[in-house]
Structure prediction request, 106 residues.
Amino acid sequence: MYATIGRWEGVDHARTDELTRKVGESLLPRLSETEGFRGYYLIEAGDGIMSSVSFFKTQEQADESTRIASNWVRDEKLETALPNPPKITGGEVIFKKMVEKELVSA
Prediction:
């Protein structure tokens, strides 16, 4: 399994709710239809920082998710809400442990 971590700085705080809604309405469906999709998390870190973590079966699929997200920002006209390009880190997941409890969406 491969993970991609995106970190956006300078996020327009006034548009956080809009971004969260659009992620659920239009980005997540695109990502989840991508072959190899295993999961996605969006994190509101405060101080204008948001991070995302996505999981895919292969590195190529994880790389494709980054292209999908980049196109999504452009398609949804979110360049002013996300004014700085994300810092992307990714690689093979070499250890994992999951607890089978359901997370509640905020």
About this structure: The chain has one domain: 2-92. The chain has a mean pLDDT of 91.
